Amino acid sequence: MFMLSERKMRTQQALAFLLLFMIASGASENSSTSRGCGLDLLPQYVSLCDLDTIWGIVVEAVAGAGALITLLLMLILLVRLPFIKDKEKKDPLGLHFLFLLGTLGLFGLTFAFIIRENETICSVRRFLWGILFALCFSCLLSQAWRVRNLVRQGRSPSGWHLVGGALCLTLVQVIIAVEWLVLTVLRDSKPACAYEPMDFTMALIYDMVLLVGALGLALFTLCGKFKKWKQNGACILLTAFFSVLIWVAWMTMYLFGNSELRQADAWDDPTLAITLVASGWVFIIFHSIPEIHCTILPSPQENTPNYFDTSQPRMQETAFDEDVQLPRTYMENKAFSMDEHNAALRTAGFRNGSLGNRPSAPFRSNVYQPTEMAVVLNGGTIPTAPPSYTGRHFW
């Protein structure tokens, strides 16, 4: 009986040890392949949480933050929409939403380059890359066209014209992307992931044309007589300029740099993912935030007079300056006071009097003192001395 119970205990210990060994081996195997991920995560999404591929986590976090800020900007526009009364600021609101929608798509497409590729993922990458960038660059081009008209003429095209122009320009890239997928994937029966970097870049020539067009048109927004809109043109110019730098950098690395460093298979997806994130943040910082700030900011009233601006000449509102005549009693009183003043000087001894011989000095005539009537005739401002006034003369 004692031997039977001892054998049973040994069997239970062996089973428990075997179970712990299997759990430990499974955990070690999972930690070696996807350290930082859960046990039930599919291998396709390992790069989203694998601590061994840290670039995926960093890019994922930056893209997620950009997507949240983009949604916040769209929410701000929706909340402030009923309070925007200026026509020149209300017309491009549809274009702003369209641009933010394209930026949000760029941040979302970043995750397609982090997860492991398959036929569906590769098709999404090839199709949406050019379309989303075409949408953003078309909105930039339409914005540059709008600001150019505002700077030169003081008025912009209607909102429907701006949105319609951007969508028509984007539709061209949609046709190019569909044709590219049909010819390479459906007709030739090639795998969607089996494409050369040069083939991928050549399908984006139209995007480059839109970007260069936006950069060139943004230069003309800095020339015009309506200077308050030039800051919008400067933001568009900076956005297009930094976008050109990003595109030159990623195409250089994607076409030549990665292959020269013999890291084409490992660095191609990180290069494209970083390009999407960097472009999205450039769009937000240099275009979306300044444009939305100018849109929700109340416009200053241009007709309000500036009472502290002394550089402008005094405007004559009525013909009062020409038609007014001094009352007769005032003239008589003024003449009487001057005669009385001169007589007082003579009797006081200033001319051959008891105080000695001093030259006659009408000491009040050399001090310019405007009267109340002079202030009224000058529109409420204190007049200056006449050109012939040379200052007080002392004896």
Detailed description of the structure:
The chain starts with a helix and ends in an 18-residue tail after the last helix. Helix 2 packs parallel to helix 10 (264-296) and helix 9 packs antiparallel against helix 10 (264-296). It has 395 residues and is mainly α. It is built from 13 helices and no strands. The relative contact order is 0.08.
Low-confidence regions = 19-33, 302-310, 314-324, 329-336, 350-356, 359-365
Q: Treating each run of at least 4 consecutive H or I residues as one helix, how many helices?
A: 13
Q: Mean of the pLDDT scores?
A: 76
Radius of gyration: 40 Å
The helix-strand sequence is HHHHHHHHHHHHH
Helix content: 55-70%
Proportion of strand residues: under 5%
Largest sheet: none
- What does the overall shape look like? elongated
Number of strands: 0
Structural class designation: mainly alpha
